[in-house]
User: Fold this.
Amino acid sequence: MEMQQSFDEGENFNPTLPMLEICVEYKNDEETFNFYIKQISNCPLTPSFSSLRAKVNVYISKGMSRTTWMGWQKSISWQEMRSHNMEKFSTLSVLRSATTVCNEFFACSVPQLQLHFTAMRVVLCDVNKDDEEDLGELHFSISFLSTAERIVVTNLRTTNLLISNKDEFYIRAVLITEKDEYEAHKTESQIWSESYEDGVSFEKRLVFDLSKRKAPMASLLLQIVKLKDQRQDCC
Assistant:
């Protein structure tokens, strides 16, 4: 018996959101969960000083449940998945574009009794020239003061960091107004520890001067920067 489902076409497709095209299949006789990553379309492109490359990471966690002491939960958080035995599958790095094509097939051993208690998370990760992934996720608030002609970035917070204990890191922001014009600022440095499971907050505000005339064409690039062996690894 085979179970197969394709998500290439959705009835409620929203053209403004990224769309993952994936096929999944479970073979009862082999107790194998197979999945094929075709592509991710409508990918938002971010400004970068180098050529953009990306890869897709797929995380499989077994033994998950939506039932908690508070009742049934609609979604399963990333922290819950990481607390279980999680397997990771990665595509090769490819050129990042509006439609990032992967075309890769994977197989994962999943017992039948655990099939309905298995969660999947698919993440599109930008990679640097050394094929290293993003360091984590950024949350922040941004406002444009039209009278003062300034951009203010506040409430900077990192989550889901893929770094080791005692690693030092900070956030760097670059405002790009024209081809050869940019302004850069950075936050204070933080040292990662296991007590920061829910994220790390930064107190410093990042302020940029930006005239109203240049505002429509401006781009803001934010990066998590890790200090390691006298060099910097960027997200």
User: Anything to note?
Assistant: The two ends are 43 Å apart (CA to CA).
